[in-house]
Amino acid sequence: MFDLKTLTRPAALFGLFMALAAANPAFAAATSSQFSFGGYLNAGSPASVDLAALQAYAAANPTAVKTVATTSGIYEGVSLSAFLGSYLKTDPSVPKNDILRGYAVATGSDGYKAVFSLAEMDKSFGNHNDIIAYKLNGADLTSSGFARIVAPDDVKAGRWVSNLSSLYVGHIPYTPGTGGVSDQFSIDGAVTNSISYDVTSLAAALPAQTVTVATPPLTGSSFTGVSLWDLLNLSGIVTDASVKNDILGKFVVATGSDGYQAIFSLGELHPSFGNIPVLVAYANGVGAGLGSKGFAELVVPGDVAKGGRYVSNLTGLTVVSVAAVPLPASALLMVSGLLGCAWHARRPKPLAA
Predict the structure, then answer these.
(1) Domain boundaries 185-321, corresponding CATH code
(2) pTM
(3) Cα dihedral across residues 303, 308, 312, 317: positive or negative
């Protein structure tokens, strides 16, 4: 039971809001009419986007308009990748593939969030058909807000963020490495156990898998290694059981000895969501070492046109939890009302006549 006398304390206010949201999610999930837009964007990018702005973007960029057939009907909207790409800033200090260092966080009005790597949506890499939907079966969306994320390639709909209230683009800064052939890497960050691997311990960690790449530029090449998802789970990914699908708010950064990096969202890797196979390879298909690529290399056989996410000379895998998002405007209005109640409860009562 919350005491109104404590509600002037910010922590108590936030705790009350979260308790009410947990008890009744509909209480917290206001119907959105716009989403904030920020992060690693070019100057002049819109700070917020409403239905009219999305429709105007679609009219000006007809190739970005997409439809997705689902069991719920046909969603219409704009490509999430194309929309973000129209405003995305590029770091000129990064030698190549700066887009692999970026990610997007989609947040609903109830605070529910999901992370997407920019590469998983890019047509040269993952090529996933994620959209910002604003129509269903030809009609505007209603109870799910004016816009929602639809991720049709995912196994389950955990990353279909409804009542979209925020799109934030993140980017990890570039630090050049010393280069050279790697002989070990470490898993660290938001994990229970940080573990280092060399070629012997990596091969012994999990059952070996061999994959043959069917897409350019490595069509026909075979690699042997272990599942990236399974390897991360050996370190124990830290999640908050009180947060629904907390795993979707995280990503992993793969780093090579030269400082080259690529982000993978954990939602992209999770078997219940993106379910893409990524191999931490330690040998080619006939069992020989990888030579100048170091003792370990990431292999992403599902990427469609480029091998940019094949991070060679692997030195680190760092699990990152995205920062908590601010309360949505609707929640702030509710809290301000509670604050008013608290002030009313605390003010001195008039003396009886």
Answers:
(1) 3.90.420.10
(2) 0.85
(3) negative
